[in-house]
Structure formats: structure tokens, C-alpha cells
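Reviewers asked in the last cycle whether our approach scales beyond single polypeptides. To address this, we selected a multi-component target totalling 806 residues and predicted its structure end to end. The input consisted of the following lines:
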Amino acid sequence: MEAIKELSVIEPTSKTEKEVEELVKDWGNDREKLIMAMLAVQDKYNWLPPDALDYISRRFNIPKGHIYHIATFYKVFSLVPRGKHILQLCMGTACHVRGAPLVADSLERDYGIPLGGTSEDGLFTLERVNCVGACTIGPVLVVDGKHRGNMTQHRAGAVVKRLKRLAEKEANNA
Amino acid sequence: MPRIESAEMLKNIQEKFRKELETYPMVISICHGMSCRATGAVEVANAFEKIVGGSDDIRFIRSGCQGFCEKGPLSVVRPSNVFYQMLKPGDVNEVIQKTVERGEVIDRLLYAHPTTGEKLGKEHEIDFYAKQHRVVLELNGYIDPFKIEDYFAHDGYSGLAKAMTGMERGEVIEEIIEANLRGRGGAGFSAGWKWKTCSEAPGERRHIICNADEGDPGAFMDQAVMEGNPHSVIEGMIIGAYAIGGTDGHIYIRHEYPYAVHTFQNALEQAREYGLLGKNILGTGFDFDIQICFGAGAFVCGESSALVRSLQGQVGEPRDKFVHATEQGYHDEPTNLNNVETWANVPHIINKGAKWFRSIGTKNSPGTKVFSLVGKVENTGLIEVPMGVSLREIVFDIGGGIKDGKEFKAVQTGGPSGGMLSEAQLDLPVDFDELEKAGSMMGSGGMIVMDENTCVVDVAKYFIDFLIDESCGKCLPCREGLRQMSEMLHRICDGDGKLKDVNDLEALGETVAATALCGLGKSAPNPVLSSIRHFREEYLAHIVEHRCPGGVCKALISYHVLPEACTGCGSCAKVCPSDAIHTVPGKKRKDGLLHEIDLEACVKCGACIEICPEDAIEKRSPAEVPVGAAGS
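The resulting structure, written as C-alpha cells, was:
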């Protein structure tokens, strides 16, 4: 009996748990909303922190194994913290034939931002996305949610340099 | 806001808003499609709004995608239909002063014909628009997608009223069967028959799903419909629910389309406020509502059984199709799933009748189809054409031919599941059956044009690698077969291919197609098989001559400076990441120093070609060997 009682009354305690509860409170115990809940968490933190997943597991009464299954199956989820700036390089067909792979090579070679990884200074994460639906202006680089079209190695470099300068300035001011 | 309780009341409301719109003598419509937003439409729209916002004489709308994305941001001033392209916030004042106040046309903002250079001022004068036939996209550009009132003013929800108050459920289904509406998601299955099976399947609840998980790379039709005219999709879904006896609706939108989600969410709320969703719709006692669910970036979730599992909070792995979703889908209950564009066609068919629908397009594929025309074509954008037009008309008449006067090489239809078609297939009429016969498929409607500088082997490799990434891994043919195909393609692109590889690719491709579990696996070999079928000589060029005709495969090309064109400006040397570009001593030209590429140090990144202002760098294939290594 006690075990059941424990499952039905889950009180958020830590700061993360309270924040997560705030995100998912409208969905009650609906286990079908798991992916929506995880997307909300990812949108807030930029990745899926383990304690947030832990809380979701208890809250919706879903085994953690299943949650990690979902987290590794779907592309948008990240189980490691991502960089301060998210660069999403569109690798759709139209962007591919217009030279997106050269932009990806350049970002890794010249600025140390590997495709599908984070730069060592933790400033940039470069992700591959399959079509953002702006094929007419490809290659497209989505910089922190803002779409930039007709991307070239040169222009991508300029974006990275600008953000780096900004970060340096902030660091100096602090 | 009044709840609409009868068809009569809907008519009155439509009339009221139509009159309201007619009071404006002029409308300025700014395209807010994805590409236009990315090129600055938001700033342009804000500048317009600052001046004309709240005016009684000028109505200002941020419309859905108007289609001509290549030339964005776009605006149309109505009723004169003056079409301006590539607007900047700085142009806004001039447009207001000249065009709006004095009725003058600003020459420099007009579209110029790519070959004749003639300036064309009206939307319908431009080939890109003139050759289209718009049904689904008809209202894009005319309505504000955030206002249900605009949709009402254009007879919105009339189809729903007609179906619910004037037709029996069976009649609605018969009408859709009669119209021969085929699924716009790609497979082309008859929507009417699907409805019929679902409505007859035993079960207490019936689920209505809209598939908006547009995962095809190079396709954005559904995004444009959701962002431009969301109510047409909602209306279609309610009609479908009424006909089938649906109890609840779901729309599965991919997470990569936040603006579409935002637009759709707003549309749902407005429909609920007017009582078009919820309890007792139009006073008929019928209840129905739609929920939004997000996709999380998995191409396979466009497959119906995978999508249903994803809706249930599971991983999106397809299941076998011994039992169809129409009988056992969501929660193992009857489920009817159609694509965005299919749903958006439904209100038109009900309103204007099956006969009208069949008068457009071909006998076996009636109606229109929206395509996203992208790649190396002059006019890229979103087009809607009647089924049965030829690829040549699409690429050369609407698309304006190949960019920069290059040669046409191939067109890829149907995304990763489709195939590549060559020059010889250009006169093929575009419909479901003809494309399939040619080894490609309709797919959801991505159409990617490739020029002479594209390598078909590289594109085939790209698609296979994409599909390996997106394969759910459940069945062996797809999981392992594609991996082996990818290895062979990589070998060929790296110059290590054997003639046997081409035959092996064909044999393996056919095996994967025959044995994979779901649609993704079954169609995955299409890009490879079709490209071998139509471009065998390119594969052979890679293997036998070590030559990449498109100049793409790095192992088979080398970069060279053309001495006669080089002005010695040095831009290339500055951007070269491997310091492979040097000035050549003693070879001084009067304009400056000449440059040469050190073939041994060159990493073939292409940065020099990108930056060179004189087009003085060329790629040669087969690759020339560095001078030092030539003797060995």
C-alpha cells in the first residue's frame, strides 16, 4: 500500500523539480504527453538534465529506461549540456547541393566547432538539422533560432567571430 | 464573440466580415513565409505597420507564404496588384509615398524577366505565377492567417456548413471518393476509400489525425499551408471527422516549425471561440476538437504507424501492416490519418463538388499539387500546378531554367524516398502513376533541381546517409542493407570503386526494397536505383576514369588558378586554411601578382572559389597529381 501512496503523491522539492513541474502541470498524469514534457524541458534548459528526467520519471510513473529510450531515439534531445550559442546547419537536400557540407567542414577546421558537438570553450554547439523549410535561400544556418540564408564559409566564419567578440566583451565587463 | 450555432448564422458572419473588408480601398500584403522572414520580412513589415497600422483606408496584412521565395521579402499592393520584390525597411517610405498615395510604380523594386530584362509590375504577368493553378494556396497572400475573420470573409467554413447541414455522412464520403482525392503525403492512396474503411471499422471511438511531420529535406509545402491558411486544414479535419464519425483530432507538427505551431495554435483557439470546435458544432449536436502534438525530429515518424506510436509517447518504430491503422491505429482504435495538403483540399471539394475537382489534373490524379521548387533553378519557391504538367514546364517555364545559365542535369522528386530523373524524362507528366513508372515518386512534393555542378553519386550517397541516420533500426534490410550501400557509394566517391559495386548496389537495393518492413525502408534505395538507371555513365566515370563530372567528390578533383583571369588580388591566399596558395615569383602581371595553388597542401575546401571575385579558380577532374609526385 505504501508503495502506491508514494507513487501517487510526488511533491517537487528541488529547484529543478519545481521548474519542471511548472512546465508539465497542465498535463496531469497523461503518460502520452511524455515527449511533449521532454520537449518543454529541453526548450527550457537547452538539454535534458538528469534530475529533470528523474523527476519526470517519478511524476508520470514511467521507467527511466523508457525515458532514455525516447531521449536517444529522437534527434532534438540532448543528454549533454549544449553550448551557449546553438548553430543549426541545415543539411536538407537543397542546402546540400548548394554547398552546406563545405560550411560544416569550415566550422570544424577553422573554428573548432565539430558537427554534432560543442566547441571546447563551450560557446558553440553545431547541430545538423534535416531541412528547416527555407530551401530557397540555402545553405541555411540557424543561429540561436534566427535563420540566416545563403551561407558561405566566409559568412559562417563572420557569424562565429562576431559571437566570440561579444562573449569576450561580456567576460571583460564581468 | 458569438458562437456560431447554425449555417444561417455562419452566412451572416461571413457577410459581415466580407463587408468589413470591402470598406478598405487598398490592401498591402507582406509575405511572412519562412524564407521571407529569414531575409528580413519582419523588419519590413514593422516599418509598414508603423506608418499604416490602424489606418481606415489601408489594410495591412502579414500573409502566409506567397511562393516566390527567391525574391523575398515580397509585397503586393491590391487592388492594383503591384508586385514588389526584395524589399528593405528603407524602401517602405517610398512605397507609401509613391505607390500608395500617388499610384505610381517604383521601377527598381519590380521583378525583371531573367532573360529579356523587361520589368514586370503585376503578379499575374510574371511567368512564375501565371503558369500556376492555385487551389490550396489560393488564399495565401490574401488573408491574415492569424484572423479567422479573414477566412470567414472568403467563404471560410462554408464547406463545413454544407457537409454538416446538407449532406449525410455517407454522402460526404461518396463525394470524396467520387473526386478521387489521392493522399498528398506521397503514397497517393485514395482518401475517400480510407475514410470509408475507417468509418465502417468496428469501434466506439474514431481518431482523426493530420500528419504535419514534414520531414522530407527540401520540402516545405505543408509549412506554407499551416502558416498561410491554417483554417483550411481545420475545416477539412472537421468535415472528415463528421463524415467518419471522428471523436477526437490530433495534429502532429514537427518541432522544427515553431512558427507553424504558433499559427496553428492561434487558429485552433479562434475556431473554438466561434464554436466551430468543441461541443455541438453548428448546432448539429456533433462534438469534435483538435489537439496539437509535437514531433521531435525523426523522419520515420512521417510513416503512419510510427507517427501513431509517437503520439502515444513511444519511440516512433513502425509496425507491420497486416492490420491497417484505419482499423487499429491510435490506441488500437480506428484511426484516419491524412496529410496537411489532403485535408486542405477537402473543403474545396465539398464546396465546389467532385466534378469540379476532377476537371483539374489528370484522370487518375485529379486536382492540383503543391511543390517546393528548389535547388539550382532560377526562380525557387512554392508552386501549385495541376497534376499532369510536365517536369519541363515546371523547371523551365515556372522555374525559369537553371541558375546562371548552367546545364540541367537532374531533378529529384519525392525526397529521400523518390528518385532522380534526367533530361530524357523531362516531358513526363507529373502525376502519381507516371513518376512511379519512371522509378521516382510523387512524395510530399519536394522538387530539387540539379545542374551540371552536382554529382549524382554524391547526392545518392547523401540520401542513403540521411536514411541510415533516420532508420529506426527495427528491421534488418533497412538497418544493415543501407549501411552496406553507403559503404559502396563512399568507395565510389573516394575513387576506390569497382565496377562490381554498381551491380552490387542494384542487387542489394532491390533486396532492401522488397524486404524492408515499412515505407521508409522500401523506398530508401530509390535514389540509388534511379540514379544508376538514368545516370549509369556518371557512376562509371567515377570508377573507370576517376573523374567526377560534377566536380564535387573531393578525392577526384583538384583546384587550379587560371593565369589569364587572375588579377593577383590575394583574396584567396587570405582565406586559404592550409596556406596552399602562394604568389609565383617572377610571374608578375601588370595588375598584380599571380597566384598558384600548391596541390600537395590543398585540402580542397573550396574557400578560394567562394571568395574569388574574378572566377579565376577552377576545379579539374580527374585530379591532377602534384608535380613532385608525378614521377613516382
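The beta strands of chain A are 85-90, 117-118, 124-129, 141-143, 146-148. We regard this as preliminary and will revisit it once experimental data from Aim 1 are available.
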